[in-house]
Amino acid sequence: MSSIKEVSLRRATVADAEAIAAVRVEAWQTTYRDMIPDTYLDQMRVEDSFLHWKQILQALPAAGDRVCVYVAESEGHIIGFASGMLLPEAKFGMQAELTAIYLRPAWQRSGIGRRMVQKVARTLQAQGAESLLVWVISGNAIARNFYEELGGVLLHEQAFSWDGMDLKEVGYGWRDLSVLMASVNAMPTSSSVH
User: Which residues form the N-acetyltransferase domain (predicted)?
Assistant: First the structure.
């Protein structure tokens, strides 16, 4: 983890699109080695992800709190982000979904990811969600352990296609968001997150 201690969480704005894209690309290129072909990871570009995130962030005001994106920031630099949404209809009994969560590798295992999950879950809970779903590539043992430590229950495993690649993913869920909140609050954190 970085030696910088102060981290703040705030809602993302359109101006954050490039930084969010950079975090996503860096996280994919380090996290998904040996799960996704190196040729795909090596060809990932911030510019491609930037346009995607710019569109998402531009659409946020119309979505209200049904969709949310938060960034983790330290000394003016975005070090991570998380997003979530209420589902139009329940999947596996879950009413909302954690759609993305990424941290720069130097900041992983510092407690920031747990706080970002909690921030997204609280926002969606305030919109009426009582449950939360998240999908993860099945070979990503670190992420799977993270969700299990937070009390996530394995719900489903399935094949899916991403940019022409055949992959497997697993879905974890919390049927009661208060269980997730209690898990986050019970774990020690090693950085100062506001």
Answer: 7-186
